[in-house]
Each structure stands twice: as C-alpha cells, then as structure tokens.
Design goal:
The protein has 2 domains: about 160 residues, Thermophilic metalloprotease (M29) (Thermophilic metalloprotease-like, 3-Layer(aba) Sandwich), CATH 3.40.1830; about 200 residues, no CATH class. It is about 35% helix and about 25% strand. The chain has an 8-stranded antiparallel sheet with strand order 13-12-9-6-5-17-18-19. Strands 7-8-14-15-16 form a 5-stranded antiparallel sheet, covered by helices on one side.
Length: about 375
C-alpha cells in the first residue's frame, strides 16, 4: 500500500509547486528516493495532463563521476543534461542522501569542474531562469540523525512541513516583500554581529513553495560593495561534504576580507574559488513556523522561523546585484531569544527582534499566525 503522505506530497508538487497544465512537460530528477514516490509524482503529472520525464540518479554514482572527472566528461554530461532540461516546462528535483558526507573526499578542483560545467550550464543558465522548478530533500535515517530525531518522528515532521498551507503563507509574506523593495539601508545586530548594507533598487522575491519545499523566506541581495561589518553565524553548515561551525566573516566594501570557522582552511578554499565567492549574492529572511532548529540541511535550515541567511557567491537573476560566482553557499544565523537574539532594522525601523516581527504589517509571519 502506498503511504498516503506520498500521494499528498506528489499532489502539492504537481498541482501547487509547479502548477502543471495539460500538454506541458516536467522533468523529475529522483536521486536516492523510493521508486514509489517517483511513481506517485508520475501519476500526479499524468492526472494533470502533463508529460513526465524521469531521470534516476545515485549519490554514490555521482561521487564516482565527479571524483574521476575529466573536462571532456563534464562537458558531455553538461551537454546531455542541458538538452534534456531545455525540453521541459518544469523541473522537480527530489534528492535523497543516505550519507550527507558522500562528496567530502572529492578533490576541490573536481568540485569546481562540476560546478563550472554541469551546475552552471544546466541549472544556473537553464533550469533556474527558464523553467518552473521545485527542489526538495527526501527523508532518510541519515537526515533524522542530523536532526536528532527518530526516523518515525522525523518523517512526521517532514511531511507536515512539506505539505503545509503554502498558499496561506504566500499571502502573509507579501508585506515583507513590499518593505524590502522600499528599503535602502539594512542593519543587523546580534552576538558577534554588527552588519550594515544597502538593498536599494534590488527586487525582493517571496518564496512560497513554488521553488523549494519546504519554503518560507523572502530574499533579495545587497548592493555588491555596500556590505560592511562583522557577521557571526550560529548554525552549522555543510559545503562540498565538509561541515563548518562558528563561521565568522568580516566585510569591507562588500568583500569578505577575513573568514574563519571550525575548518578555516576549507572555508577559505571555497571563498577563493573565484572573485565573486568573497561577495554576497543573497540576503534572505526565514519564517517557516514548523522549522525551529537547524538540522544541517540547507533547504530546511534557511527557512527556520526567526532566521536569516547571508550567502557568499552567485546572485539570483530575479534579485541580482551583479555578483557572479560558481559558489552559492547559504549560511544561516538564528536570532531567536534561545539562540542569543538579535535585531533587523530597515532604514530607521526595527522590523524584527529576537526572531519575531514587531511591525503590525509583518506580525502575520510570526509562528502563531502561520501554524
């Protein structure tokens, strides 16, 4: 018997997240997820009159492909996957991962080869700007372990988060997007953090389950050379299979001039990937009421209620500050009272304190209103 939660999630992905219509084409990229879930998405797509295309992948095989990669091999993969991505109207990426550190021993130059070829050409240049897309993880014992939960409890949490009323959240986030579009100066303060930058004339994009699930953020980008001060992150982060804690950046005129973490050498190797990696490509405020603590999975962590993330690397085209990079590394800072608190100011107005919105137009994003 099919788990009814799978059917409900498939309906969310096809009916709401990608909004598939008769005659449209959708690419389902399933990486280490149960075939039953892939089949439920296929059935939901056909019920909507859409034509599904399925690609099955494995992180174990992906590791081997990247670990022994050559330029010609990466070009071949990029050319093939770009052709496929260019044929569809929408993309659903379901990504399981039995081992979050599967890519941790892949050499940095091989990671960069993959990023510069496959990721940039297929995802940055085609999927993100030219398709309707949604990306989500699949629950596994490894993820449950990351979250410090039993497998059963984590699965219940996962399906509650992923099938919440995103349409309701969408309405509640519009005033925040409006405020961000009208703001020039942003100031963020908290333990170890005193940061200022401008977001003037850069669009603000509400994320309401149409790109990522789980969702619950509004993102923009700082004016590239406007960032000054220090930022102390307090959520663990993982990049290219390497875990970092206590990430700290010092900025001068937009550039990260000093960077440290529990793995400072690996951190700076990423930031030295290219010129844009030391500049910020995204600033976002998170408010998903069902996600309250980090679990070392960025699709969840960046949506934590009372958080923000400040992202070294590539800016999104929808809210572009001109920064270009092969890196896009979302790193999260929690500002809830139990995590040390903090404030976000837009121009001269305090809009969030200790993780809770304080202005009347934004209080609808606080957890008691969204659950």
């Amino acid at each position: 018997m099919i788990d009814p939660r799978m059917t409900k999630l498939a309906d969310v992905l096809i009916g709401y997240a990608t909004g598939m219509k008769p005659g449209e084409k959708v690419l389902i990229e399933a990486i280490d997820i149960p075939h039953e879930m892939t089949c439920e998405i296929v059935k939901a797509a056909r019920a909507a009159g859409a034509d599904p295309l399925v690609t099955l992948k494995s992180n174990t095989i992906n590791r081997e492909l990247i670990h022994c990669a050559s330029e010609t091999q990466m070009e071949l993969i990029a050319e093939t996957e770009a052709l496929r991505m260019g044929k569809v109207d929408a993309y659903i990426g379901m990504r399981g991962n039995p081992n979050i550190a599967e890519l941790s021993d892949v050499p940095k130059d091989k990671h960069k080869m993959y990023q510069d070829n496959v990721w940039k050409r297929v995802h940055q240049e085609i999927r993100v700007p030219k398709t309707r897309w949604v990306v989500l993880r699949w629950p596994s014992p490894s993820m449950a372990q990351q979250a410090g939960k039993s497998t059963v409890t984590f699965e219940d949490f996962y399906f509650n988060v992923c099938t919440m009323d995103y349409a309701r959240m969408s309405k509640a986030m519009q005033p925040l997007a409006k405020r961000m579009r009208e703001t020039d100066q942003v100031k963020i303060v908290g333990p170890g953090t005193e940061l200022s930058f401008s977001i003037k004339d850069i669009d603000a994009i509400p994320c309401d389950g149409k790109l990522n699930i789980p969702d619950g953020e509004v993102f923009t980008a700082p004016v590239r050379d406007s960032v000054n001060g220090t930022l102390q992150y307090n959520a663990r982060t993982i990049y290219q299979g390497v875990i970092h804690d206590d990430v700290r950046f010092e900025f001068k005129n937009g550039k990260i001039v000093d960077a440290a973490s529990t793995n400072t050498k690996a951190l700076n190797e990423v930031l030295d990937s290219d010129e844009g990696a030391r500049y910020i490509g995204e600033f976002a405020i998170g408010f998903n009421p069902f996600i309250t603590e980090p679990m070392l999975d960025i699709l969840f962590d960046e949506k934590i209620a009372g958080s923000f993330h400040f992202t070294p690397g590539q800016a999104y085209e929808e809210a572009c500050n001109g920064n270009k990079s092969s890196v896009h590394w979302d790193i999260v800072c929690l500002q809830t009272e139990e995590n040390g608190g903090g404030e976000i100011w837009f121009d001269s107005t305090l809009i969030r304190k200790n993780g809770l919105f304080v202005t009347d137009d934004l209080k609808g994003l606080n957890p008691e209103h969204l659950k």
